[in-house]
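Design job #97: recover the sequence.
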């Protein structure tokens, strides 16, 4: 520390501790937990009264996202309020979502420390719904005990929510692989899914798969994975996640009231004149235009005078 010119405060140093709080987390001998003050803040939080308060709540929930794979599903109703041109109005299904978030985060799910031994069995489990993607890593130690090493989830974009079921399941696999890339690269990984066709897709010739799935599979080639099908009831979190998804979807769609949040009187989304002016000022477009004109001139000189008129194209 002296050589690196690093200084510490004696009153902030702790030695021989079984538990240490650090940046909103509690480090124990067994693994990682959310800190008590963060959990207490979650318990005490009240329903937000504005979009700014909602963003503060979502930020806190996102910080503790690693302790649950259900967060993407649970916060989906709240994220709808945070979208542009959406009037903020707190409704009963928003309060229910907040209560579910509190309950989920306060269960104190332990995240075990990652074992870098290549002989340790590492399993990536993935699941997808119409609202979000979930992925979590399990490792089996030398005593045969399974431990959760990492969990993650995210909401689907409007485009992704329109994917077919197999495309969403494949996207969930890619999300898990890329989210935990530094854990999974360079070691053999078992990928478990509750969607049986996905196992066969990863075994087929790449040219025989649909285009979108080809892109997903190409992104997975840098990983050493084996995709295995397991029924949803035998995957620890899959059934719970699907139930959460169905419950959340029902709560969102049962409201009989419709609200108009945005009205546009614009008849054209693109201004042709502005596009032409921008292209005229763009150096790359000018270079392409000059190249085409030069090529056209050379073609006109090479053909007979009878067909020159046919090539009189205005640029």
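Job complete. Output follows.
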């Amino acid at each position: 520390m002296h050589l690196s010119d690093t200084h510490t405060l004696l009153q902030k140093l702790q030695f021989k501790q079984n538990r240490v709080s650090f940046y909103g987390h509690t480090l124990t001998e067994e693994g990682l937990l959310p800190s008590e003050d963060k959990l207490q803040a979650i318990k005490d939080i009240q329903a937000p009264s504005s979009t700014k308060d909602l963003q503060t709540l979502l930020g806190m929930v996102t910080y503790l996202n690693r302790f649950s794979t259900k967060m993407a599903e649970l916060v989906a109703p709240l994220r709808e309020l945070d979208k542009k041109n959406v009037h903020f109005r707190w409704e009963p299904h928003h309060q229910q979502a907040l209560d579910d978030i509190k309950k989920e985060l306060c269960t104190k799910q332990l995240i075990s420390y990652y074992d870098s031994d290549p002989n340790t069995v590492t399993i990536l489990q993935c699941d997808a719904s119409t609202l979000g993607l979930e992925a979590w890593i399990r490792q089996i130690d030398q005593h045969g005990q399974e431990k959760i090493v990492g969990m993650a989830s995210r909401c689907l974009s409007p485009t992704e929510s329109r994917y077919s079921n197999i495309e969403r399941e494949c996207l969930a696999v890619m999300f898990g692989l890329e989210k935990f890339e530094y854990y999974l690269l360079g070691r053999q990984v078992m990928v478990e899914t509750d969607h049986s066709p996905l196992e066969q897709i990863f075994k087929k010739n790449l040219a025989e798969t649909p285009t979108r799935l080809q892109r997903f599979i190409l992104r997975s080639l840098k990983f050493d994975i084996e995709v295995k099908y397991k029924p949803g009831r035998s995957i620890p979190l899959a059934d719970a996640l699907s139930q959460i998804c169905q419950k959340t979807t029902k709560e969102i769609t049962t409201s009989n009231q419709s609200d108009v949040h945005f009205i546009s009187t614009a008849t054209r989304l693109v201004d042709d004149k502005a596009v032409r002016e921008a292209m005229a000022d763009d150096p790359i477009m000018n270079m392409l235009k000059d190249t085409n004109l030069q090529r056209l001139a050379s073609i006109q000189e090479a053909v007979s005078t009878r067909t020159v008129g046919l090539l009189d194209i205005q640029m």
